[in-house]
Design brief:
heterodimer; A: about 290 residues; alpha/beta; Nucleotidyltransferase, domain 5; 9 helices; about 20% strand; B: about 210 residues; alpha+beta; disordered N terminus; tRNA N(6)-L-threonylcarbamoyladenine synthase activity (chain A); Gcp-like_dom (chain A); iron (chain A); ATPase_NBD (chain A)
């Protein structure tokens, strides 16, 4: 019954999670929130994470009712994500692994989302729509890889929706001042259009793979309208939609622990010398040996 | 990922007070208890901090020597060495073409100069120095060759030597490293070295 501790901090959320045989024993998390109208910068985000990570580690162990001796493996986010936050969390994972004499596992953040989604929802082999502030990918499993069927080239959907607030302030000035439309109209329009695109691409992937399951993961997956639209599409195809709540949609430590658990069981290990973080880490770079 | 890019391990903007005079991260508890310090830097008019560490710049041996604001007490159990920041204040570096955000093209040519900075960190034991090294070394710059970092472990001492041409990236690399070093030190202090590790038992992370 291996117990895996997972560290996640690739964007503005820092979380430490503990998983044992498919059970989430602890999952504390903190979010670095910047003032409205501002985004989060790597250096500041990293500083936030460094300030709280050791407390979170303590919280996770306490919540799980475990000590260091009960932990079998230390998992952490190797990438993708923002450099400074990733590195700040990785040094702690490495130090803890050395202090407690445990094997280390570098986990792909996107795969963390997928494995937690599969665990929580029970979906067997879903087509995955991974949509967040930092990533937007349509993924399906095939022959030991999570294959990327589609992705945004320029900007993730969550990021796009957030930045649109700035567009409303300046560029849309003209349209709004004439009374041609309201900010609500523009937001609605953007969301409906972008979400429809996501649903369409996901549907195409499902048709291509003959898949009867769809799974939404990532922070934007919390959006009820997106879930609604996906549900409609799935129903029309006789497929089943799976989604998680904000505990697991949004970046968290337990998802890294869960992916780490699967990898650990399958014999993966990350030597310290190869444990460097990487801002660009493709979902299909990982050999998914724990699935058939 | 489509988020704004930054150098791996970069600390963001370089104009941070933390790097300049040894002011500490707000989140840090007073991680005190250094082993013997290395004495002061040469150069007129600079403060010496006998408990601090030695940071040497490669330019004429001059540099401000800032110690931690909280005075370190006697070595505490499990404590590791303090870090002091030495900021190179070489004339050449300050006037290097392309620095200070000049809008013009970066015409360095023969005037560009290699900046160099060495940080010597004494730990309580070779074990901790080695551990810190293994925790901190794996994260390399995204563009290798722009800023070089060289790690050496000698007994209980970890030495890091930076060389770079670009003063901004140079500064960012050093600053962000110090932040992570501080975190490792706090981490070791907070969790403590278990007895089994000191005796070298058990299978840990492969190196």
């Amino acid at each position: 019954m291996p117990v895996v501790l997972g560290f996640e901090g690739s964007a503005n959320k820092i979380g430490v999670g503990v998983v044992r045989d498919g059970e989430v024993l602890a999952n504390p998390r903190r979010t670095y929130v910047t003032p409205p109208g501002t985004g989060f910068l790597p250096g500041d985000t990293a500083r936030h994470h460094r300030a709280v990570i050791l407390d979170l580690l303590q919280e996770a162990l306490t919540e799980a009712g475990l000590t260091s001796q009960d932990i079998d493996c230390i998992a952490y986010t190797k990438g993708p994500g923002m450099g400074a936050p990733l590195a700040s969390v990785a040094v702690v994972a490495r130090t803890v692994a050395q202090l407690w004499n445990k094997p280390l596992l570098g986990v792909n953040h996107c795969i963390g989302h997928i494995e937690m989604g599969r665990l929580i929802t029970g979906a067997t082999s879903p087509t995955v729509l991974y949509v967040s502030g930092g990533n937007t990918q349509v993924i399906a499993y095939s022959e030991h890889r999570y294959r990327i069927f589609g992705e945004t080239i320029d900007i993730a959907v969550g990021n796009c929706l957030d930045r649109f607030a700035r567009v409303l302030k300046d560029v849309a000035e003209r349209m709004l001042s004439t009374g041609e439309c309201t900010p609500e109209d523009l937001c609605f329009s953007l969301q409906e259009t972008v979400f429809a695109m996501l649903v369409e691409i996901t549907e195409r992937a499902m048709a291509h793979c003959g898949s009867q399951e769809a799974l939404i993961v990532g922070g934007v997956g919390c959006n009820v309208r997106l879930q609604e639209m996906m549900e409609t599409m799935c129903q029309e195809r006789g497929a089943q939609l799976f989604a998680t709540d904000e505990r697991f949609c949004i970046d968290n430590g337990a998802m890294i622990a869960q992916a780490g658990w699967e990898m650990f069981q399958a014999g993966h290990r990350t030597p310290l010398s190869e444990s460097g973080i990487t801002q660009r880490y493709r979902t299909d770079e990982v050999e998914v040996t724990w699935r058939d | 990922m489509q988020a704004p890019q930054d150098d791996a391990g970069a600390g963001g903007t370089g104009d941070r007070a933390e790097a300049q005079g040894g002011s500490r991260n707000p989140g840090d508890s007073g991680s005190a208890g250094s082993s013997e310090g290395k004495g002061s830097l040469s150069g007129p008019g600079h403060l010496s901090d006998p408990r601090g560490l030695e940071g040497r710049s490669g330019c004429d041996g001059q540099g401000a020597h800032g110690g931690p604001e909280s005075q370190s007490g006697p070595a505490r159990e499990g404590a590791v060495g303090e870090v002091a920041v030495a900021t190179p204040q070489c004339e050449q570096a300050a006037h290097a073409p392309g620095s200070r955000g000049d809008a013009g093209p970066m015409a360095r040519g023969s005037r560009s100069r290699l900046l160099e900075f060495t940080l010597i960190v004494p730990f309580q034991s070779p074990l901790e120095a080695d551990m810190a090294h293994r925790s901190l070394a794996p994260d390399t710059q995204r563009q290798p060759g722009v800023v070089q970092k060289e790690f050496t472990v000698n007994g209980s001492t970890l030495t890091i030597r930076w060389t770079a041409e670009d003063p901004v990236l140079f500064r960012i690399s050093i600053n962000s490293f110090l932040d992570r070093l501080s975190l490792v030190v706090r981490n070791i202090q907070r969790l403590g070295l278990p007895a089994s590790l000191k005796q070298g038992r058990g299978k840990g992370p492969e190196s």
